[in-house]
Amino acid sequence: MERSLETQVGLAVEAWLRWVPRWEPSTHRGRAAPCRRCLGSPILSAAGIGANVPHGVQHGLSTRIKSIVDHAVAEYTARNLPMLQAELDQQAERNRARAYRPAEGLDPEYEGMPLDPDPMPGAPFLFTIAGMADDAAAELPALPPLTDEAKAALRQEVALADDYANMVGREICSLMLRHRLAVQSAISQYVEPQIEAMLSELSEALDSPFDPDTP
Description:
With 215 residues, this protein is mainly alpha-helical. Helices cover 60% and strands 0% of the residues. It contains 7 helices and no strands. It is flat, with a radius of gyration of 22 Å.
């Protein structure tokens, strides 16, 4: 039996709550470009996760919720939008033919994240994972072209799918309000102490910049 949206959201939050205790602050350089999935997300706002929460913590929850929306839209598309479904099936078959698919099979905390770090000025990469993936995709034949009428019909179905996704997203926002206290409690217990410890270490280093015992 298909799980209800409420059950799916509850399971996603529970999975995130089990993961949060394992979260640790990143030691690498932050990225210059903001994450479009997390920045200004109404779902994260409904869960009580503010912009001051580290992005990795936000991303772990937003990705789990996005998979619920994607699944709901996929079912709606399969039932009601035949042209869009056919186009998606062709694209999926084309993707399966790629020899290199580095973005597949990742844990939720890493889905949608950039495959490569930001380049350092004056130190270009010899190659990038994203570039290798693009090369593999370029080797495949292009999808067959669409007529103008088919393009117009496809745009209409895409708009319907977007409207449905927005409707599901609004319902999930209302469901997330029920988990707000648990989410905020986990952040207070596992995330904030680590951030405070980092700030304390930074403050001590700034206070004693020439201390030989300072690492």
